[in-house]
Write a structure and sequence with these properties.
The complex is a heterodimer of chains A (394) and B (442). In chain A, 63% of the residues lie in helices and 0% in strands. By secondary structure, chain A is mainly alpha-helical. The model of chain A has no long low-confidence stretch (mean pLDDT 89). Chain B has 442 residues and is α/β, with parallel strands linked by helices. Chain B has eleven helices and 19 strands. In chain B, helix 3 packs across helix 5. Classes of the chains: A mainly alpha (394), B alpha/beta (442).
């Protein structure tokens, strides 16, 4: 490590003001602080600081997303070979998924981090770590058949217009990953839904096969929404299958098991608010139960029972990884219960009663992102009123 | 006597505790100093010139805005130097002792307030709002005394008090004449101090339970327009002693401890003594640069070995500036030695209460506030700390007022500053907020 440290020390002057490469100062600083914990000590205030910093926090979230990512790779391969109709071993499936996902991950990080680096350099600030998480969330929520250029455009749009113009990490109003997804959803609807979006039907880097034209890879919720009649579509998998996750869907959302492992990591480390997470599920089950009490053929999703509602689609993934984003969510403890509960309610409400959208989790989180400051405002106002009342009575 | 249980906060278990209750003597101090910055809200105007003789208890300077507030010399000697900084700001008034033992005897029949102002004890009091030396024209709603210090490695105030505990009832009697309300005493539930005549509450729970601001918030919070005075139990004992004997007691017992101290100990010294007299032969020789802090690790002042003991004159902590230089990818560490109170590090699971040797590293860069609830968990008050901090940064006076800025002092945010993932300088932010607020209101 000593030689690396020496090398960095030697290079440093070039990147500082006046140096040849001073335009890359933020990038160099980012690399340096990534490799070596800075030796800066406190100037004012407390003399000791906790070891936890933003890098560690963000990396922990990325670790929590790993089970979802690994399962996504396996499931992409599984769905592909199922569609193609050939047998494959576990490792073949996994390798196919890896090849299919890798370009999306690279594009997402390259575009997003590129913009972050430029923004940091313009403002002469340190590079913020927020995109570490966003960059891995995007490949997990964007359907696997989305063309890479679309992912690139959407990522750039989200990072610039949902984050940087508000001031960067910690200042954004809407969840950046979900804005990416929403941008794709509304700009290129034909590529983002229907039965061709969620299963990779052509080879990845020449590996794998091509599915027959008759293949249909609709998600269970898509099947539910398009089915006509008084009963549930017989094509949809059982709730247990959805829990395990070998079903078509956006890469990261299918497996409840992988999401639960992530949830446990986030809750044990205390990074995500359990209040938000629990309330989203409570809201979803409550709304699901309500809809299920009045099943109607007009809204076929109302025939799903509440447990199936939370196991299918992106609900659980949104509850664990999207709703719990502290920056865009409610920040007061009481506010977090309200915020989470309403996300759960709206997700199921949109899913069941809006024929246009078979899935509502993304829109529910974005909608509540907009309302989170209002919820906090009301909660804080109660505290303010209590203080005013106290002053008057004395 | 009510027991108030506090749950929020945290007790950091630092290395370098004092193991024996034996009080050592400080070696002779070459110089003594009074540092005007220790007394927030006052601006010094000299009464003595360099070279003039002073007796212990004689005024060195007074407050520019209120000349009744005197700052007195802790020893008999000559004014050696008035140290000045940028724009001739007075940094310290240095006195060379002459060991002649000249000291002022005060007339205890005088009006109590006048005597406090004259003796130099007044600046040891604080007022809320603004956490400043009290305005001598105002009459406080109540007076709050804290009888324990819960900060990391802080000395036991009851131990420092020793026999002087007997003067407390006199102090409460004197202080009662200055308020229409009550004199409250907040004690640790393990070391209660009773029979002082004050309204006593005991507190259990982690730091910052000993902060007088936290005690006020849980007993009778400060509202807009109200003023309360605060002091610690040692100052109270000095007040009692002054009114009993007519003499100012400038002696003090200082806890000298921390991971950078060879043999942590209680040391008997005089207010404002040089750090050489406390630390010579005590700094551990571990090859690392020491950080000498006059006070505790959370709220103390960084000093050099040539500096002096700062108010409240009872604690010196020495830690290492950097324990682990150029740590490779520290953010990825799985080592249980990397201390954190959060469970993102392995130490957060098993070692949160283990004895640790913390250095002065920031352990990260300054960021926007991302994680929610971090400040609230470290502040046992009915205040939305994060929203208050944001209001202060935006300097939204109405919001600051509504969110309770009158109830807080920078020290109340010290623990949150330690725990802050975003590494913001919360105490500085609060101090600036209070100062701006005061400028706006007066």
């Amino acid at each position: 490590m000593k030689s690396l440290r020496k090398f960095l020390d030697k290079m440093k002057p070039h990147f500082q003001e006046g140096g040849k490469l001073s335009k890359l100062e933020s990038v160099f600083d980012g690399m340096e602080t990534f490799l070596f914990t800075p030796n800066t000590t406190s100037r004012s205030g407390v003399h000791i600081h906790d070891s936890n910093d933003m890098k560690r926090t963000m990396i922990t979230v990325v670790v929590a997303l790993m089970p979802c990512l690994l399962f996504a790779m396996y499931n992409i391969g599984f769905q592909h070979f199922k569609a193609v109709g050939t047998d494959a071993t576990f490792w073949e499936m996994f390798f196919f998924g890896l090849l299919a996902m890798l370009p999306v991950i690279v594009v997402s990080y390259a575009v997003g981090l590129g913009i972050e680096f430029i923004a940091a350099q313009i403002h002469h600030k340190e590079i913020q770590e927020g995109f570490l998480v966003t960059g891995i969330l995007i490949p997990l929520i964007v359907p696997i058949n989305t063309p890479l250029w679309m992912t690139a455009v959407a990522t750039a749009f989200a990072v610039i217009f949902a984050k940087e113009i508000f001031g960067g990490t910690g200042m954004n109003i809407f969840n950046v990953a979900l804005i990416t997804r929403a941008f794709l959803f509304f700009a290129y609807p034909s590529k983002m839904s229907g039965d061709m979006a969620f299963v990779k039907t052509d080879p990845a880097f020449g590996f794998g096969g091509t599915a027959p034209d008759t293949f249909s890879g609709a998600t269970p919720l898509g099947d539910v929404a398009t089915n006509v009649g008084n009963t549930l579509s017989d094509k949809i998998p059982s709730t247990m299958d959805a829990f395990i996750g070998l079903i078509p869907g956006s890469p990261g959302e299918t497996s409840m098991i992988a999401i639960l492992i992530g949830a446990i990591i986030l809750l044990i480390t205390g990074i995500a608010s359990w209040r938000v997470m629990v309330s989203v599920f409570a809201g979803g089950i409550a709304m699901g139960a309500l809809a299920h009490s009045f099943p109607t053929a007009t809204y076929p999703a109302s025939m799903l029972d509440p447990i199936a509602q939370i196991c299918f689609g992106g609900f659980a993934f949104a509850a664990v990884f999207m709703a719990t984003d502290p920056v865009t969510g409610a920040r007061t403890k009481i506010g977090q219960y309200i915020y989470g509960f309403l996300i759960g309610v709206f997700a199921i409400l949109i899913r069941v009663y809006n024929g246009g959208y078979p899935e509502g989790a993304m829109l529910a989180v974005l909608l509540m992102n907009a309302f989170a400051p209002l919820i906090d405002y009301c909660v804080v106002q109660v505290n303010i009123n209590r203080r005013l009342k106290r002053a008057k009575t004395q | 006597m009510a027991l108030i249980k506090l749950r929020k906060g945290f007790d950091l278990n630092l290395k370098g505790k004092i193991t024996s209750e034996i009080v050592a003597e400080a070696s002779p101090s070459d110089t003594y100093a009074v540092v005007p910055d220790d007394f927030t809200g006052t601006i010094p105007r000299m009464e003595k010139k360099e070279g003039e003789k002073v007796a212990a208890g004689e005024a060195l300077y007074h407050d520019k805005n209120n000349e009744k507030i005197k700052f007195t010399s802790p020893v008999s000697g000559t004014v050696k130097q008035v140290m000045r900084g940028d724009r001739r700001k007075i940094l310290a008034v240095v006195i060379e002792p002459d060991y002649e033992g000249r000291s002022v005897t005060f007339d205890t029949r005088e009006n109590p307030k006048a005597l406090l102002l004259e003796s130099g004890l007044w600046p040891m009091l604080r007022q809320r709002p603004y956490d400043i030396v009290p305005n001598s024209n105002a009459r406080p709603r109540d007076i709050f005394i804290t009888a324990f210090d819960s900060a990391p490695l802080a000395p036991s105030l009851k131990m420092i008090l020793g026999d002087d505990e007997k003067y407390l009832s006199k102090a409460v009697e004197v202080l009662s004449t200055m308020t229409d309300g009550k004199v409250y005493m907040g004690c640790s539930h393990t070391e209660p101090i009773t029979d002082t005549g004050a309204e006593t509450n005991t507190f259990s729970g982690p730091h910052p339970a000993g902060n007088v601001g936290v005690q006020i918030a849980n007993v009778k919070p400060v509202n807009k327009g109200e003023v309360v005075w605060t002091l610690d139990v040692i100052t109270a004992a000095r007040i009692g002693k002054l009114f009993e004997t007519g003499k100012m007691d400038y002696s003090t017992i200082v806890a000298v401890n921390g991971p950078g101290v060879e043999e942590p100990a209680y040391i008997k010294a005089t207010m404002g003594c040089s750090l050489h007299s406390l630390l010579d032969d005590r700094l551990s020789d571990n090859g690392k640069e020491p950080r000498i802090i006059s006070g505790n690790v959370l709220t103390g002042v960084k000093e050099t070995i040539d500096g002096h003991l700062h108010a409240p004159y009872r604690h010196v902590t020495v830690i290492n500036e950097i324990n682990n230089k150029d740590e490779f990818m520290g953010w990825a560490s799985l080592s249980p030695k990397k201390y954190s109170i959060y469970r993102v590090f392995t130490s957060g699971f098993f070692g949160r209460h283990k004895e640790v040797d913390l250095d002065a590293k920031l352990n990260g860069g300054e960021r926007a506030i991302v994680l929610s609830g971090e400040y609230d968990n470290m502040l046992p008050m009915d205040i939305y700390a994060e929203f208050l901090i944001k209001a202060i940064i935006a300097f939204d006076i109405d919001k600051m007022e509504q969110l309770g800025i009158y109830e807080v002092a920078p020290e109340d945010f010290a623990l949150a500053e330690y725990a802050d993932t975003s590494k913001l300088e919360l105490q500085r932010i609060v101090r600036e907020g209070l100062d701006k607020m005061r400028a706006e209101m007066c």
